[in-house]
UniProtKB/TrEMBL annotation:
Record-linked InterPro entries: Class_I_gatase-like (IPR029062), CTP_synthase (IPR004468), CTP_synthase_N (IPR017456), GATASE (IPR017926), GATase1_CTP_Synthase (IPR033828), P-loop_NTPase (IPR027417)
Organism ancestry: Eukaryota, Fungi, Dikarya, Ascomycota, Pezizomycotina
EC number(s) given by UniProt: 6.3.4.2
Protein name from the UniProt record: CTP synthase
Domain Glutamine amidotransferase: 324-551
Pfam families: CTP_synth_N, GATase
Amino acid sequence: MKYVLVSGGVISGVGKGIIASSTGLLLKTMGLTVTSIKIDPYMNIDAGTMAPTEHGEVYVTDDGGEMDLDIGHYERYLLTTLTRDHNLTTGKIYQQVIERERRGDYLGKTVQVVPHLTNAIQDWIERVAQIPVDESGRKPDVCVIELGGTVGDIESAPFIHAMSQFPRRVGKGNFMQIHVSYVPVIPPGPHGEQKTKPTQRAVGDVRSAGLRPDLIACRCERPLEEAVIQKIANMCQVETKQVLSVHNVSSTYHVPLLLRQQKLRESIIGLLELDAPGAVAPSKAFVDHGAKMWQEWVQRTRAQDGGSLDTVSIALVGKYTNLEDAYISVGKSLEHAAMYCKKKLDLVWIDSSNLEEAAQQTQPAEYHKAWHALITANGILVPGGFGVRGTEGMIQAITWARTNKVPFLGVCLGMQMAVIEFARNVCKLPGAGSEELNPGCETPVIVYMPEVDRTKLGGTMRLGKRECVFQPNTAGWSKFRALYGDDVTSIHERHRHRYEVSPDQMAAIEAAGDFVFVGKDEKGERVEVIEIRSHPFFVGVQFHPEYLSRVLAPSKSYLGFFAAAAGMLDEVTASLTGKPPIVATNLDE
């Protein structure tokens, strides 16, 4: 087993996740099976109880793990299926060590950070790195480990110490490190000077902690100047070929190609002795397919950047629009759909609170701006969320989409709001609402799931991949089901929710018009998909389809929605059942 550690210095949010994912992708182009582990040094057991505005989106895996958003990058780039154990936090590792101590596993010894905690970290990494991550069931050849945070942070110390010991455990030639740093430009602008001192200090911190970076990936506003590369190499005691320039590009999908051009693959081959006798022999499985398709995908993003494609505007009406990372998988899913349709995505962020009547009085400029963006959009998307704030604005947006025949997709909370909107305005159910938002409402059409533990928050929702069964009366007319083909009777998607459509109100809602519960759970009791039959595309899903959208395999929920907004739903639906292969080109070009 080979290991690649990706660490970061100078500032947080420097792009370690994208660089780690891109490194994994380049390894896959060699025919290797790649897995990834994300280390988060916060005390939380997982990301499930953190607000989206605090730490960005909570990403969910098949097994119901509530994960850091970087796990989403790994799955999207590497076409892998990771587990809850692929995200290691301080909370998880301390919990494991304390449980062992309580059982007496340490045989009376004084339990300490070194060696007990650091050994547990290394044991965890070795164990999880062996878990198969694709359909072949083959154990991975390489594990890319991203160490979250910034080297030097006090909470990272146990992990850094563990990783400094790890090369001795796994053996020479089986471990390498990429350290991601930041090269600021002072003053900002095209003529500012690229400053290397932060990188020098960051590399010094890494070395003082017991690690020695093999490659230094320098994030920068523009390509590093040759003199700057020479200076970093001299001051950090590395060769110039060990300094990588990772400058800003228009799309993160370009980063693997940027690293490929700087011969990252060749560097890894040498450092991990992949060309040595007995090393992993590359196959051509991914080389001949995925890598070439990735190049085609990048060409499409360049066409988008160049303005040669028609633009489709999507209004994202949400609660956490002040932090784009809160909806990062949603944005990526729309990008995947746009590239599939060969259109340019214009994603318009609308704070749902600004659509409410109260905003007209308190901040009229924001109110009118929000409504103008909404009514001029080609499609309206209401994503997931928690809490009452902004939900009346979501309902206003849904009413507009329904009555004006604008393509609509509601996800999780967005679907629930669509049910409430229809119950209020079409079914005329008095006081229709949600037990989450209005606990004392007269007619709760959204209710708390009976099996959910109400005494705590962490890990208590309906989580992970579940089956959605299409109802018999939907074949032949459902636009959503047609995306899969009428012969497909069920699909599997990932969930994260604790409220659902009330079983007691389902019959009354369906009786009032052409609002149909297209998909239900395997028992036929829980609503999974809703659709308005007479609408060009009005769909709500209880699951989160963004978690399974991949760069080379867009989510059909988002693809159908985007295609409807682009006026090409029939064309895309037809292409999904008999689409010819994408014309491939070489990743090396």
